[in-house]
Write a structure and sequence with these properties.
By secondary structure, the chain is α+β, with helices and mostly antiparallel strands. It is built from 2 helices and 3 strands; from the N terminus they run ββαβα. It has a 3-stranded antiparallel β-sheet, sandwiched between helices. A hairpin with a 6-residue loop joins β1 (4-12) and β2 (19-25).
């Protein structure tokens, strides 16, 4: 199955800034990605503290994905040296 890129934004009660990032999952099902994220968050936060989880699928040609892949490539080059 093809990897899909998702833009993730997570809002936590009492935290001034939301967690934001791009993640890669082997599914294009929003509900599966949401469940994966929620299960991971519940290891560190109470359900009542998780205000909102925004999940959106990104095109492989989007600027965000290109920047993400570029940063990842630079990081891998740095780690291999």
């Amino acid at each position: 199955m093809k990897a899909n890129y998702f833009s993730i934004t997570i809002y936590i009660k009492g935290r001034g800034k939301a967690f934001k990032g791009i993640r890669v999952y082997d599914t294009d099902n929003y509900n599966e990605v949401y469940k994966i994220l929620l299960d991971g968050l519940l290891k560190y936060y109470y359900l009542a503290d998780i205000l909102k989880i925004d999940v959106s699928l990104l095109s492989e040609n989007s600027i965000q994905v290109k920047e993400y892949l570029e940063q990842k490539s630079k990081k891998n080059e740095t780690n291999s040296n």
